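retry 2 of 3: previous attempt timed out while embedding magnesium ion. Reduced batch size to 1 and resubmitted. Inputs unchanged:
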Amino acid sequence: MNDLYLIFKNLTRKKLRFFLTCFAIFIAFLLFGAVMALKGALDSGIEMSADNRLVTVHKTNFTQPLPYAYVNKVKNIEGVKDVTHANWFGGYQGDPTRNQIITFAVDPESYLDVYSELSTEPQHKQNWLKNRAGALVGERLAQANNWKVGDQIPISSNIFSHKDGGQTWEFIIEGIFSAEDKQTDTNYMIFHYKYFMETQSWGGDYVGWLVLTTTDAGFNEAVAKRIDEGFTNSQAETDTSTEKAFNKAFIEQMGNIGLIIFSVIFMAFFTILVLVGNTMVLAIRERTGEIAVLKTLGFPSLRIFKMVIMESLFLSFAGGLLGIAAAYLAVAGLSEMLARFLPNLILGAEIIIQALIYMTLLGLVTGIIPAINALRLNIITGFSRG
Amino acid sequence: MSDEMLFSLNNITKSFVKGRENISVFDNLNMTINKGDFLAIMGPSGSGKTTLLNMLGGVDQPTSGEITFDGGRVDTLSESQLAGWRANNIGFIFQFYNLMPMLNAARNVELPLLLTHLNKTQRQKSVETALELVGLADRAKHMPSELSGGQQQRVAIARAVVSDPKLLLCDEPTGDLDRQTADEILEMLQLLNREFGKTIIMVTHDPSAAKFAQRTLHLDKGEFVEKDLVA
Ligand SMILES: Nc1ncnc2c1ncn2[C@@H]1O[C@H](COP(=O)(O)OP(=O)(O)O)[C@@H](O)[C@H]1O
Ligand SMILES: [Mg+2]
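retry 2 succeeded.
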């Protein structure tokens, strides 16, 4: 037997109370981990957008396609540097709900011009540009699936059918693209738009959305206005905004939800702090007589002080570590499902460290008052009360 | 009983401040306790028995006067020094046993050994010996709630003697027990006194409990009246 054993026995002597308090802390840290990961994903989506990059989507609904002819029209507008376009492929492997593979059909050359932060080995890039059935895979996606250059990968679409039957396309990985900034989304793959249009059964010539760069970020607003005005009263009116604004608008709703969740978390944390603190004070007060006995036997007050602090730290960490672990698993599960919208939904080391700090603080704050009470407890009054 | 002095109290005064009142419990109290003594202290409620025992046990300090234990001053020790002194020299036995409810009998007995430098094996050996001494070796794994009052008090006695202190202080050790169980406990204290040379100071209400002691001191309003009841 040692002090740790005593602490553990004290902590768990009332099983139900221990369980409930742990559970409350568990919930707090589960929420904390999940919301911090969500916030990180939202923030990075905005931060990672280039300053001079604009996105043009269908005005009514950004999921509706635009005519292919718009690409050249936009290219000729003053202030536009490069234009590219992309189509959502709806890719997956195996189970469509679980193993989504984010795949865009793009114009290869202009796409890499517009997304200049993406880099590929020059030889691989050339090979991809030449091979119409080739795919260029983002680093994170390749790592997640253990893919290498030269691999042949079957990707199914939950939207399109192959004109030869079935819904699966075979792609050859010609290259891997990566970005210097680790926050940049590389959890997706791209392939040739032309090849897509030729091989899918519906045919047609439309694009999902346009992405363009302006010659100078200062022209962004003017360029966006020119584009949208150019398509007023046409078959498909457009809505152009900076990539930043687009991402921001898209996640604004989520952001508002985020604020609500934040307030909820804050209140939850505060409530739990009070609850755990109160539980600790009560738990130690109930043991006044026992503490007096320990002191009588000759246990130094400081040792008892430490034992009480440790007890509340253990409590905090027992619930907190389980909570953050559950948050980690939840985020890992959700990030696959939400990869299209929130590519950076990860519960990283930074959040875990923050959580550990909060667990420590929670343990110290809730333990300090009962610990001081125990430290100061006079043996004689302890017996008369205990 | 040897004549070597264990405790000596000189000119002890003790008063409590309660609000604006000053309650004087002892005024110029003197006494000596020899090594190997088994002393019963009797007296009406409020006469100062517990206060005296607390001062002897170093959990309370006299307002003035000197307490010497085994040649060294106790009344001048700091709180943390006193804690160490208690751990080394005194075994406590309480009226309501005061075992830790979440620890089994063996671990309750082991508790004072956490304040020593004994290693795990040595501690276990001492615990076994102490439990055997009180006849509860077979109850080592039992929780206090699974033991009768008399058994709990025997565990408490094992806890009090496990670190082999010179002195046992007992405040109403049989106050919560029936006659027969009380006698068993008192016989055990007698055994510890006679066979193991423990000095014992026992506070009690009960004249038949006091009969087990070598001598009895009667405390009344903070003063001793010595009369030998056994004789
Ligand atoms: N902590 C204390 N504060 C104030 N008065 C006390 C305290 N402890 C004891 N007393 C007073 O001292 C006197 C002796 O008490 P005590 O030693 O408990 O007597 P006994 O144990 O003989 O019944 C009583 O009058 C009691 O009210
Ligand atoms: Mg008393």
